[in-house]
């Protein structure tokens, strides 16, 4: 296998540019990929520098491919519940829920964050999957009265331990009262921003949802100015940090071939209500069955590995395939290669030695927990604010 370093992506009219595209380009981003038919910014400098940026200070990541599917109408709450195993009766206006979209057989299609904006209006902030068309298809014969559209919203993530200082400088210290997995609305220029205490980095952070695309440059530069004292820099909110935190990438670490129970997300299957949802019967059966697969962490021996482009074979001592490595990275703090993977549950005991097919041949590895370095997302923003101001 050969890593395809130096690959380029051509810009073309059928792929959308989000509100922060030009600002990202102006600030040096030349590494893009396509996510939900939209260009999403990758690294601005080098991955290791951006890793330390989000770990020590604050980073801005224009996550423009993180699109919002809006569901509204008199039956919006009932329809959103039909989409997910989470009990949405427990979701208040102003709250966010990390949720799964499951298939009729119980596999995982997507893992959006659901924001309840009004009694009958929701945003589903989706991973890279065609959630809009899935929801439109389900609505056709549902008998429910809902309106479904992809809201023209661009997201920028503000992540890192100094993000409370940046946000307070820009939006006022009241933003420090925002609770984890809740959102608030704040004025900016001539619009209202939705701000949530969420993010994909494993570090403390926020996501800002911009509905007026014409303000993309203005908001980006305002964030840069507000974070100047905190050593702000644009950058990808970081693949390495999310793997260290055991944060899954839908379509990579979990697919429609795995149930939530097999990838450690069984807590998101809530059967304590009577409302129907897609996959309910299959998931109710799977809950009480022995697992055939299990999500694992891996520590891989040897020198630094480039990230995998495809799943890599994991084999046992007898050279029998027992699973696949899904995401691999080099951790600067652990000074080693770490990874996530899915393997046969009978082979998933901690500290078991395995073999992994990599770029440079087969390497030894050790099964570990999926949480390599703890998350900081739920820390107290007031404490972080005070620490960063000292």
Notable features of this structure?
single chain, 390 residues, alpha+beta, Gyrase A, domain 2, Alpha-Beta Plaits, Elongation Factor Tu (Ef-tu), domain 3, 3 domains, six-stranded mixed sheet, six-stranded antiparallel beta barrel, 29% strand, globular
Question: What does the model show?
Answer:
By secondary structure, the chain is an alpha+beta fold. The model has no long low-confidence stretch (mean pLDDT about 95). The chain is built from nine helices and 21 strands. The protein is globular. The chain has three domains: about 20-65 and about 155-240, Gyrase A, domain 2 (2-Layer Sandwich); about 70-150, Alpha-Beta Plaits (2-Layer Sandwich); about 290-375, Beta Barrel (Elongation Factor Tu (Ef-tu), domain 3), CATH 2.40.30.110. About 20% of the residues lie in helices and about 30% in strands.
CATH fold assignment of the largest domain: Gyrase A, domain 2
Category by helix and strand content: alpha+beta
Beta-strand segment tally: 21
How much β-strand is present in the residues? 25-35%
Short description:
The protein is an alpha+beta fold. The protein is 20% helix and 29% strand. The protein folds into 3 domains: 21-67 and 153-242, 2-Layer Sandwich (Gyrase A, domain 2); 68-151, Alpha-Beta Plaits (2-Layer Sandwich); 291-373, Aminomethyltransferase beta-barrel domains (Elongation Factor Tu (Ef-tu), domain 3, Beta Barrel), CATH 2.40.30.
């Amino acid at each position: 296998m050969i890593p395809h370093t130096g690959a380029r992506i051509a810009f073309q009219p059928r792929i959308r540019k989000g509100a922060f595209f030009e600002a990202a380009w102006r600030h040096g981003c030349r590494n893009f990929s396509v996510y939900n038919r939209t260009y999403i910014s990758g690294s601005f400098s080098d991955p290791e520098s951006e890793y330390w940026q989000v770990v020590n200070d604050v980073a801005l990541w224009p996550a423009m491919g993180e699109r919002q599917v809006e569901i509204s109408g008199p039956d919006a709450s009932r329809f959103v519940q039909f989409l997910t195993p989470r009990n949405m009766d427990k979701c208040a206006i102003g709250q966010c829920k990390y949720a799964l979209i499951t298939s009729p057989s119980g596999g995982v299609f997507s893992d959006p964050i659901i924001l309840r904006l009004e009694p009958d209006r929701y945003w589903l902030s989706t991973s890279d999957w065609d959630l809009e068309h899935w929801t439109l298809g389900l609505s056709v014969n549902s008998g429910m009265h809902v309106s479904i559209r992809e809201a023209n919203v661009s997201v920028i993530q503000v992540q890192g331990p100094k993000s409370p200082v940046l946000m307070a400088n820009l939006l006022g210290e009241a933003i420090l009262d925002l609770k984890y997995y809740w959102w608030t609305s704040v004025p900016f220029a001539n619009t209202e921003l939705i701000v949530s205490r969420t993010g994909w980095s494993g570090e403390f952070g926020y996501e800002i949802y911009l509905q007026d695309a014409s303000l993309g440059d203005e908001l980006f530069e305002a964030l840069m100015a507000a974070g100047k004292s905190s050593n702000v820099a644009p950058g990808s909110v970081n693949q390495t940090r999310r793997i260290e935190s055991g944060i899954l990438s839908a379509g990579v670490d979990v697919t429609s071939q795995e149930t939530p129970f097999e990838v450690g997300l069984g807590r998101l299957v809530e059967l304590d209500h009577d409302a129907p949802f897609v996959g309910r019967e299959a998931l109710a059966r799977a809950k009480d069955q022995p697992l055939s697969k299990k999500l694992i962490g891996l520590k891989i021996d040897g020198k630094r590995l480039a990230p995998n482009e495809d799943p890599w074979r994991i084999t046992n001592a007898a050279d029998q395939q027992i699973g696949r490595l899904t995401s691999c990275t080099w951790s600067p703090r652990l000074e080693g290669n770490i990874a996530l993977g899915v393997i046969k549950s009978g082979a998933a005991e901690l500290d078991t030695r395995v073999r992994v097919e990599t770029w440079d041949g087969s390497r030894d590895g050790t099964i570990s927990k999926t949480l390599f370095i703890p998350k900081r997302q739920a820390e107290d923003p007031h404490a972080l604010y005070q620490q960063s101001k000292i």
